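My hope is that you will study the protein record below before we discuss the fold together.
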Amino acid sequence: MKVLSKAEYKKYFYYFYDEERFYITKYFKDTVSKVLKENFDLKYYDKGRWWYSDWNCHKRMVITLFASKGITYPMLWGYNYDFIPRLNNQNKFIWHRTQKSFHLDIEDAYYNYVPVIPKIKRTEEYFFNPEQNAKYQYELPIWTNNLEFALKYIEDVVKKIFHLC
């Protein structure tokens, strides 16, 4: 996957004052699901942004999109174990064992594998610059003015992320 320059990233994913723009999160389900199905045989759960594998040896792989503030969504991945309980709001132990119940008991993300610029060093030079700020290489953009380019870019980002796992 080619790393976009700062100008290219801004062109496709940030500045759209006079152009039509698309909020592309509604396309994440199909685009991300296609890549995860081909590479990991993961299924999509409709209520939320969760992808999961079948149970194997009391665990399953789980992937989710974290809806953070800003113009990108990071992907988190990890494992859901059927023997690790979680304490709910009523102080009762619950287990996430069904097809509709998910929890990341052990989670991971791209920022544990690639250098991320500390907040103190974030300047205009680094902001929105995929060549220097890994955030824009490994997170999914949520706005675009070129839907076809953005969907291909998202596929490439997902493939790049999961070469880290």
